[in-house]
Amino acid sequence: MTSPLEEICAEVRKRVNPSESERKKVQELAKKLTEKVEKAAKENGVEAEIRVEGSVAKNTWLRDCPEIDVFMRVPTTMPREAFGNVCLKIARKATEGYKQIERFAEHPYLEAIMDKVRVNVVPCYRVKRGEWISATDRTPFHTDYVKPLLNKQMGEEVRLLKRFMKGVGVYGAEIKVGGFSGYLCELLVLNYGSFIEVVRSAGDWKERIIIDYEGHYEDRDAAENIFEEPLVMVDPVDKGRNVAAAVRKERLDEFIAVSRAFLKNPDLKFFYPPEVKALDSRELVNKIKARGSAIVLISFRGATLVPDVLWGQLYKSQRALRKLIQKHDFTVLRDNVWSDQKNLNIFIFEVENRFLPNMKRHIGPPLRKKEDCEKFLRKHVGADSTVSGPRIEEGRWVVYVKRKYTDVVNLVNEKLGDGGANVGVAEVVSKAVADSMEILVNNEVLRLYSANPDFAKFLTEYLEGKPRWLT
Amino acid sequence: MTSPLEEICAEVRKRVNPSESERKKVQELAKKLTEKVEKAAKENGVEAEIRVEGSVAKNTWLRDCPEIDVFMRVPTTMPREAFGNVCLKIARKATEGYKQIERFAEHPYLEAIMDKVRVNVVPCYRVKRGEWISATDRTPFHTDYVKPLLNKQMGEEVRLLKRFMKGVGVYGAEIKVGGFSGYLCELLVLNYGSFIEVVRSAGDWKERIIIDYEGHYEDRDAAENIFEEPLVMVDPVDKGRNVAAAVRKERLDEFIAVSRAFLKNPDLKFFYPPEVKALDSRELVNKIKARGSAIVLISFRGATLVPDVLWGQLYKSQRALRKLIQKHDFTVLRDNVWSDQKNLNIFIFEVENRFLPNMKRHIGPPLRKKEDCEKFLRKHVGADSTVSGPRIEEGRWVVYVKRKYTDVVNLVNEKLGDGGANVGVAEVVSKAVADSMEILVNNEVLRLYSANPDFAKFLTEYLEGKPRWLT
Q: Most-buried pick from A66, B71, B172, B218 (CB within 10 A)?
C-alpha cells in the first residue's frame, strides 16, 4: 500500500519526467543548436568552446517546459564590449529564422524559440575556477560539478522539487520572484537526498539556514559570518558565493510554510495550482466594500526595460511610495505591484482610511529641556499652523497642527506629479509616472480591472490575500 | 526703579493681603465660632480642645477668600463612630442658623457660611505626634510647626504663591485638581525663602524633586526610596508622609512650565486669569470642523457624591473608557471629563476617526512556532471572520479579520449600555450611566453646549487646548 504522499509524487513524476522520445528530441535540438553556434562563431573568427549547460545538460528539465542553454566560452582575452556585441551577433546568426528575443542579465544574451522550445545562447569567459570575470562564467563549473553526482533517479527528485516550487510560486531567481534557482534545487536534493527530504527539512527550518555541502568552511559559524542572506547554500565551486543569494525572506518563509502544508495534506494542487478565476465586477465591488479600507491604484504606462531591471525599479519605487505614504501618517495595510512587463504597471496601496483628520499631534521637547521648550513655544503659540495647544502631555510640550495632506490621493498626486524621483521613485519608473500616472480608488479600479484580465486575476488574488495552496 | 516682576508682585500683594480691619473681622469670627463649638461640645459632654487651624491660624489666607478652620481635638478614647456622629452633631449645633453643608473627607465634617465667610468645623484626635489615628490629626501639629517660622513678611510670600497657583489652576489637593495644598505652599516658601525663589527654583526642576526641610533623612537617596511621587516634600512633623503626595505629575509639570513663563513675562494674568469667553454656536461648529477629528461626548446624570469621591470615580471611569476605546483600535487624540458636581457629568473623547475599516490585521505566530501556526491556520483559513488571508508577513502568519466595532459610537453604546461596570467604569458612575447615558458626536454636542454655560466654557478651553496663561 502506498501513502497519499507517495501516490501524489508518483503522479507528478509521470507528468514531469520526459519520455525517452521527448528527451531525444530535446537532445537533438540542443546538438543542432550547438553546431549552429559553433559554425557562427567560426565564421566570426571567435575561438569559442560551445557547450550545453543548465537543466538539459544535467537532465533535470521539466517535461512541460524544456529550455536549452547553449554557452559560448570565449577566451579571457576578448574585451568586454566585444564579449557582448560579437557574441550576440553569433547567437543571432545561429538562430536565424527563428523568433529571437534579446535579453539582458549582467550582459546581453539571446533567447529564441526553436521548434516550440525556448533556447538561450549565452556568452561566458573560459576562466580558471575562481578567476571569474562575468557572472555566467561559473555555469560550466556548476554543470561539471552536478552532472556526475546526479543519477537518473536523483534527477527525477530535482524535477519534483522544481515543479513543486513552480506550483507554489517560489521558483526562479529573477528579481520579480526572488526565489529558488534550478541549480539551488539540484544542490538541495543532493544535500537532503530526495524531494521529500528537502520538503521535510524545510518544514523544520527555524533559524538561518546554512548549507555547506562541500565543507568549504570549518564550521557553521565561519560560514555564517561571511554571508548575510536568510538562506545560505555555499556554492560548491566557489566558497565565496551563496547560491541562494537571490532568495528573499518572503519566498523562503513561503517555502517553509508550504512544505508543512504539503506534508500534512499532499495534493496535486501544490504542483499544478488551479487557474485563478477573476471575480466579476459586482463581486469585486462587494469585496472592496466589505473591507472598508481604501484601495488605491497608481497606474502608469511605459518604462520599457528588461524584466530584472524593470522589477528592480518597480520594487524600489514601491518601497519609496510605501515610506512616503506612511510618513504622512496613513496606515498602509498592504501593498503590491503588478506589471504586464510591456506597458502597463500598477502599484496597489491599501490604506486604513483614505482621509485623516486635519489636525495632527506634533510632539515637542520634554519639559526638562528648557531652551528647546522655549523655542518650541515661540514657534507654535498662536501660529497659523496651530489648531490646538501647545499643552503639556506626559512631561512634554505637544501641539496640534494642521496636517498638510488629509487625503492620500492628494498626497500621491502632488508628490508624484513630477514622477516622484525626489521621494525615491526609480529613474525610468519616475519618467513614466510623470507622463502617465493615474490614481484610482476603490470602485474606480473597475476601469483597469475590466480592461486587463491578467491584472484582474492579480487583484482577485490580492483581495483573497492568501497563498493559492492554502485551503 | 523696580522691575516688572517686582511691580507685578507689589500689585498682587495689595490685592491678597487683608487689611487690618479685615483681619480683625475674620479673627473675631474665628473666635466666635471657637466659643460656639466649645459650648456645644460641653453640652454634648465631649471634652474637646477647640483650636483655629489652617490659613487663618497661620495668617496666610487670601483676602478674597478667607476660610476659617476650627478643629475639635477629642480624646483618643472616643470610638470612631462617635467621633464621626457626635462631632458632626456638635458642629451643627455650633453653626445653627447658618447655611450648613455636610462634607466628607476620610470622615464627615461640617462646612457653614457665617457672615459670608466659609467656615469648617472638623474633628480630630488629640494624639501624640506620630500616633495618628485619623487623617486630620496632623493638622494642629502643622499649625504649631509653621506658625513660629512664618513671620508677617513670609506670610505675604505664601499669599503670593497661593494666588499664583490658584490663578494658573494648580492649587488644591482635592482629587479634582491634584495640585498643591496650602500647607505645601507654606513649606515651599519656608524652603526657598520667597515666592519668587519658589518660582525660580520650580522653573529649573528637572528630575524628581525631594525636599526634606527638617532633614529627617540622611541624604536624598534615603528619602527617594521611601516615596514614589514625582514631588516629595517630607512632612516636618511626620517623616513618613509626603506633603505633596496629592500633586499629580500633570499639575507639577504645569507648575514648572508656568513658573518659567511667568519669570519670562511677569503679568497679572497669571494671578488673575481673564474669564473664559465661550465660543458662540457658529464658532464652535467651525472649530470642530476644522479639526477633522471626531469629538464624542458621553453624558450622564446623577452620581451624587461628595466631590473627592465623585472625581475619583470620574477619573477612574475616564481611564477605563480610554482603554476600552484604544483597545478597539480607535486613536484617542485627547480626552477629558467635566462635571457640574450636582447632576450633569460629561466625558469627552476625541478620536482621529469615528469610523475604522471593517477589516483589521490580526497578527499570528511566527513561522518557527510550528504547532501554533497549525492552530492559527485551522482557526482562520476559510473562517467566517476571515476577510483576507491568512498570509505570511515578516515571518509571521497574519490574517485580516472582521472588526467587531467600526463605529466608536456603537462601541460605547454597546459596552456602556449596562453602565460599563465590567469594562472598569466606577460603581456609582456606572449606575448613572446605565440610567441616563447620551452620546453626542461633533455638531450634536451643541445641545449640551448651549444648555450649560459652564460646560460651554470648559469645551471652549478644551478646543483651545492650551493653558490659559500661555499667550
A: B71
CA B153 to chain centre: 30
Long-range contacts of B4-11 (CB under 8 A, 24+ apart): B4/B266, B5/B196, B5/B263, B5/B266, B7/B266, B8/B266, B8/B267, B8/B268, B8/B271, B9/B160, B9/B195, B9/B196, B9/B266, B11/B268
Residue B241's φ and ψ, nearest 5 degrees, are -115, 135
The phi and psi torsions of A410 (rounded to 5 degrees) equal: -60, -45
**Nearest CA to CA, how far is B390 from chain A (Å)?**
5
In chain A, which segments carry CATH 3.30.460.10? 15-138
The total number of residues written for chain A in this structure: 471
Distance in angstroms between the alpha carbons of the first and the last residue of chain B: 27
For chain B, what is the radius of gyration of the CA atoms? 27
Q: What is the pLDDT along chain B (471 residues), one digit of tens a residue?
A: 689 999 999 999 999 999 999 999 999 999 999 999 999 999 999 999 999 999 999 999 999 889 999 999 999 999 988 888 899 999 999 999 999 988 876 777 899 999 899 999 999 999 999 999 998 999 999 999 999 999 999 999 999 999 999 999 999 999 999 999 999 999 999 999 999 999 999 999 998 999 999 999 998 888 899 999 999 999 999 999 999 999 999 999 999 999 999 999 999 999 999 999 999 999 999 999 999 999 999 999 998 888 999 999 999 999 999 999 999 999 999 999 999 999 999 999 999 999 999 999 999 999 999 999 999 999 999 999 999 999 999 999 999 999 999 999 999 999 999 999 999 999 999 999 999 999 999 999 999 999 999 999 999 999 999 999 998
Tell me, yes or no, if the pTM score tops 0.90: no
For residue A267, the distance in angstroms to the closest alpha carbon of chain B comes to 17
- Residue A354 DSSP label: S
Per CATH, the number for A281-355+406-464 is 3.30.70.590
Q: Which CATH superfamily hosts domain A152-270?
A: CCA tRNA nucleotidyltransferase, domain 2 (1.10.1410.30)
User: What stretch(es) of chain B map to CATH 1.10.1410.30?
Assistant: 152-270
> For residue A448, how many other CB atoms are within 10 A of its CB?
18
In chain B, list all ranges with CATH 3.30.460.10: 17-145
- CATH class of domain segment(s) A359-402: alpha beta
A367/B290 touch (CB, cutoff 8 Å), yes or no: no
B109 to chain A, minimum CA–CA distance in Å?
36
Looking at domain A15-138, its CATH class is alpha beta
For cell 578567476, name the residue.
A131
* Dihedral angle of Cα B255, B258, B259, B264, to the nearest 10 degrees: 170
Q: What is the ipTM of this complex?
A: 0.90
d(CA B464, CA B442): 16
| Residue in A291, A368, A466 closest to B391 by CB | A466
Which of B 82-111 lie inside 8 A of A, CB atoms?
Answer: none
Cell numbers given for A153: 533517479
* Each residue's pLDDT tens digit, A313-345: 999 999 999 999 999 999 999 999 999 999 999
- Kindly determine whether residue A392 and residue B207, on different chains, have CB atoms separated by under 8 Å: no
Instruction: Closest CB to A359: pick one of B292, B381, B392.
Output: B292
Q: Is the CB of B368 inside 8 Å of chain A's CB atoms? A: yes
Q: What is the CATH topology of the domain spanning B17-145?
A: Beta Polymerase; domain 2 (3.30.460)
What is the amino acid identity at position B469?
W
Please, where in chain A does CATH 3.30.70.590 lie? 281-355+406-464
Q: Looking at beta carbons, which residues of chain A come within 8 Å of B358?
A: 290-293
Q: Name the strands in the sheet holding B359-366, side by side, starting at the edge strand that comes first in the sequence.
A: B359-366, B396-402, B386-393
Own/partner pairs, B209-212, CB within 8 angstroms, 24+ separation = B209/B252, B210/B234, B211/B187
A391 in reach of chain B (CB within 8 A) = yes
